[in-house]
């Protein structure tokens, strides 16, 4: 059964390059996760196209999107097993792609049994964090590797606009503002109207609630859930705690238990709307419990829910740097050095580190410059790179700390 790729696909090399080395591995299940509509299905189609172009016969590629007809009602493991069996009758190595696999209860037993066949390379996608949990790794006998996909980062946003022949301004700051207002969901790049883009994201928020939250978490009152969600989204990038959220909501007349807030935060994290950033004490070398920061997987969640068009550049630029670093698989935490705070400590896959401070500008006054540099200058005892990232075009040199322009750094697809 030939899998026909009808639409033109933007090549997301950032993720393809991570997965390509595992295309033909039959022992390892490739798990692709991410918030709904971030491009997981398109990524799988890109992999299929590369396999087809490399000479893999069409009959050896099995692709099932369980969110679409004719597989929409498929929910039992026996049904999934029978579907695969019916289509896996070709000779030689086969490649199995299952989109939104969590629609099938107990899918793990089916996936495990087919992996044990030994001649089938398996790719699965899902939209919630269950697919990233230790429980899943256990049920898949530990033989899986996870690839977390994000909505478009700023560099991908510019590349995708050019790919689909959308106008790209020569002024990078104009495009940065566009990106902040529009967000990075791939489908919105094709829409011309900002109103249409926000309507799409509002609909997406409701879809995520219905499919990824309501099915997994008991929500007694939708209005209370929406209030908690709006509060956290509106305060992205701010240090907060469950206690603070409960107290702030109480001031507005909304009474909600700490346990309920905690449950809703976990649901928003599971649905990949929120990303939690722990705080790390650099003197004690320990994580700090209680207060955390939350960032958005896409900035459009904020602007779709708010009519205020003003940009708070502090948390907004932090969010852009956070998602860019996360898309490159850096571990991320907020660093505390005494009474000072470093916006991000980044840990690379090779266990190297980088320290990052983010600001709109450091050029407005010496006081501003000192504030942004001081926390980085307080870090002693290692030679890992330190960055002050701003929108400035005139760059400073100070005590070995790199002052870089955020848009130039991301457009160049640099590592930290």
Strand content: 15-25%
By helix and strand content, what is the structural category? Answer: alpha/beta
Please describe the biggest sheet, giving its number of strands, its sense, and whether it closes into a barrel: 9 strands, mixed
Overall mean pLDDT stands at: 91
Beta-strand segment tally: 14
Q: What series of H and E elements makes up the topology?
A: HEHEHEHEHEHHHHHEHHEEHHEEEHEEEH
Helix content: 40-55%
Shape: globular
Q: pLDDT under 50 segments (min length 5)?
A: none
Task: Supply the number of helical segments.
Answer: 16
C-alpha Rg (nearest Å): 22 Å
Report what the structure shows.
The structure is a single chain. By secondary structure, the protein is α/β, with parallel strands linked by helices. 40% of the residues lie in helices and 20% in strands. It contains 16 helices and 14 strands. The protein has helices at 13-19, 40-53, 77-87, 107-115, 134-139, 154-163, 172-182, 186-190, 194-213, 222-234, 242-251, 258-270, 300-305, 313-327, 366-377, 406-411, and strands at 29-33, 61-65, 94-99, 120-126, 144-148, 239-240, 274-281, 286-296, 331-337, 340-347, 353-358, 386-390, 397-398, 401-405. Strands 6-8-7-9-10-11-12-14-13 form a 9-stranded mixed beta sheet. The chain has a 5-stranded parallel beta sheet with strand order 2-3-4-1-5, with helices on both faces. α15 links the parallel β11 (353-358) and β12. The relative contact order is 0.10. The mean pLDDT is 91.
